[in-house]
């Protein structure tokens, strides 16, 4: 079989004979006869080095560009890992093959078999001299957008044709980096004794009052999409899971139109027993610093595609109290924010540019933090809640939580909510709830701020906002 190595093949011994479909060899899996595996590529474009001169390879990908100079024709094949130049010299190559390449529509899917030839003038120092090119699927033309990025497209056009937009290396780079961020966080949690959990996304009650919920029909009842895993991760502290994390969607029915809000977001949530807010702030800054370091160490190619020079933030992050931050925000501001009011975007920006790096905002007024936030015992008007801030926006909110059931009921009431709706949650506090603390960190905002992107929509594959429900 031309010395090809095969992807996803089972042990050779029991193979049934190959089938040929569209010029491809297929093997039927003898254990699961209905599953067939494509006998495809030997390498990604990025695996090939000029030193492999003379080796036979099979690449699979998209016809990025065909440049026909008459005597010589260049086909640029693109796959996930980059580009490969396929060179067809008119005098040397089979006429029929050359004609087929000349007629190729851009973005058609191809399988190219050929020989590597070291070529200093080619983009990666090599070219492929093809022996066979199979057209696996022809792309229609014209294309809905230009996948080379030479013709600019606005964000809406790009999101409408996201499958093509993602074919551009800098766009894909964002999601490879996001994948590394997720891997890094999971590794951090695993190294620190956390259990990964999955809590329900279809729920009967709001987490924090009924305003920002998406109602859904659940058989004959009304239900909602979960705003956050808050109540469930806290119940798991009563259950004795001690340290949990969840990476999952949260839904907010807010009519935002900002560059940092979506109606569906991915939250990295953590809850830890026998811990206070300082303990979980320390975890958060370590996890963030590790994510930056891991991306810098492992995603150099993607960072270069984006033109980003990444430096890990210094730990420990600065701690700034709400009261200190308010003073900064009010300097030179006409409509002063009063102590006890929430900080608006303008205030966040002013404080962020004064501080200039990641920081924790601490000692928030009790009244503007959710009911489950523990107040300081000696000054109950101030809470053990905190936000992790990037100079441009909030990244996470966290706190030591209330664990005393009587105080929790009182705080639910004070926030104008009915404790009856929270009975399933409150029960967990009456029968042995340890003190605990935790946080929720928005994945999209981490990637957005890490890479200096314009908009959270650039950091989400298929964003959901008030206007966008497809694709
Ligand atoms: P903001 O004040 O910026 O609207 P929030 O305080 O309402 O955020 P939290 O409930 O504290 O958000 O959620 C924790 C984290 O989840 C936020 O810090 C943010 O990173 C992320 N997050 C929350 N809501 C959204 C959203 N609508 N879009 C994107 N990320 C979000
Ligand atoms: Mg918050």
Automatic annotation (TrEMBL):
Q: Which superkingdom does the taxonomy of this entry point to?
A: Archaea
Q: Does the keyword Aminoacyl-tRNA synthetase apply?
A: yes
Note the coiled coil stretches, chain numbering: none
Which Pfam families has this protein been placed in? Answer: tRNA-synt_2, tRNA_anti-codon
Q: Name one GO biological process term.
A: aspartyl-tRNA aminoacylation
| Residues engaged in binding L-aspartate | 208, 252, 397, 401
Sequence intervals crossing the membrane: none
Q: Where is this site: Important for tRNA non-discrimination?
A: 123
* Cellular component GO terms held in the UniProt record: aminoacyl-tRNA synthetase multienzyme complex; cytosol
Does the keyword Protein biosynthesis belong to this entry? yes
Do you know which PROSITE patterns this protein is assigned to? AA_TRNA_LIGASE_II
Write out the ranges of the annotated region (Aspartate).
Answer: 230-233
Any GO MF annotation of the entry? aspartate-tRNA ligase activity
Enzyme Commission number(s) from the entry? 6.1.1.23
Residue numbers binding ATP? 252-254, 260-262, 394, 442-445
Recite the UniProt cofactor note for this protein: Binds 3 Mg(2+) cations per subunit. The strongest magnesium site (Mg1) is bound to the beta- and gamma-phosphates of ATP and four water molecules complete its coordination sphere.
Question: Where does the Aminoacyl-transfer RNA synthetases class-II family profile domain lie?
Answer: 175-471
Q: Binding residues for Mg(2+) 3, per the UniProt record?
A: 394
The UniProt entry, under SUPFAM superfamilies, shows: Class II aaRS and biotin synthetases, Nucleic acid-binding proteins
Q: Name where it's found.
A: Cytoplasm
Q: Which family does it belong to?
A: Belongs to the class-II aminoacyl-tRNA synthetase family. Type 2 subfamily.
Physiological role:
Aspartyl-tRNA synthetase with relaxed tRNA specificity since it is able to aspartylate not only its cognate tRNA(Asp) but also tRNA(Asn). Reaction proceeds in two steps: L-aspartate is first activated by ATP to form Asp-AMP and then transferred to the acceptor end of tRNA(Asp/Asn).
**What name goes with this protein?**
Aspartate--tRNA(Asp/Asn) ligase
> In the UniProt record, what gene is named as encoding this protein?
aspS
């Amino acid at each position: 079989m031309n010395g090809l190595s095969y992807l996803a093949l089972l042990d050779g011994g029991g193979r049934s004979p190959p089938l040929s479909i569209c010029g491809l060899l297929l093997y039927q899996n003898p254990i699961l006869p209905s599953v067939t595996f494509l006998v495809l590529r030997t390498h990604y474009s990025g695996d090939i080095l000029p030193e492999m001169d003379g080796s036979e390879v099979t690449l699979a990908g998209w016809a990025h560009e065909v440049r026909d100079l008459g005597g010589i024709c260049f086909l640029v094949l693109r796959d996930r890992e980059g580009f490969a130049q396929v060179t067809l010299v008119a005098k040397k190559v089979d006429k029929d093959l050359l004609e087929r390449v000349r007629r190729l529509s851009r973005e058609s899917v191809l399988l190219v078999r050929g020989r590597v030839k070291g070529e200093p003038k080619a983009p990666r120092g090599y070219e492929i001299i093809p022996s066979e090119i199979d057209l696996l699927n022809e792309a229609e033309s014209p294309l809905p957008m230009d996948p080379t990025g030479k013709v600019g497209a606005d964000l809406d056009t790009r999101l409408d044709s996201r499958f093509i937009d993602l074919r551009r290396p800098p766009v894909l780079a964002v999601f490879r980096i996001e994948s590394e961020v997720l891997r890094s966080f999971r590794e951090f949690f695993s190294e620190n004794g956390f259990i990964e959990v999955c809590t329900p996304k279809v729920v009967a009650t709001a987490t924090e009052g009924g305003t920002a919920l998406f109602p859904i029909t659940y058989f004959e009842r009304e239900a909602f999409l979960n705003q956050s895993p808050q109540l469930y991760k806290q119940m798991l502290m009563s259950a004795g899971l001690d340290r949990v994390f969840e990476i999952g969607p949260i839904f907010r029915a807010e009519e935002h139109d900002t560059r940092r809000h979506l109606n569906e977001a991915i939250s990295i949530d953590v809850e830890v027993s026998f811990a206070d807010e300082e303990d979980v702030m320390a975890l958060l800054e370590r996890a963030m610093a590790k994510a930056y370091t891991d991306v810098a160490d492992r995603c150099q190619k993607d960072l270069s595609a984006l033109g980003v020079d990444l430096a890990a933030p210094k730990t420990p992050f600065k701690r700034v109290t709400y009261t200190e931050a308010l003073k900064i925000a009010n300097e030179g501001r006409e409509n002063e924010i009063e102590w006890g009011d929430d900080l608006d975007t303008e205030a966040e920006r002013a404080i962020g540019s004064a501080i200039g790096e990641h920081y924790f905002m601490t000692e928030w007024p009790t009244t503007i933090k959710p009911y489950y936030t523990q107040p300081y015992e000696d000054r109950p008007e101030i809470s053990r809640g905190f936000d992790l801030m990037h100079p441009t926006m909030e990244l996470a909110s966290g706190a030591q939580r209330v664990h005393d059931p009587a105080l929790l009921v009182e705080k639910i009431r004070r926030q104008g909510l009915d404790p009856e709706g929270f009975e399933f949650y409150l029960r967990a506090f009456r029968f042995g709830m340890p003190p605990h603390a935790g946080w929720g960190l928005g994945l999209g905002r981490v990637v957005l701020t890490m890479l200096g992107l314009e908009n959270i929509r650039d950091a989400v594959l298929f964003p959901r906002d008030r206007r966008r429900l497809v694709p």
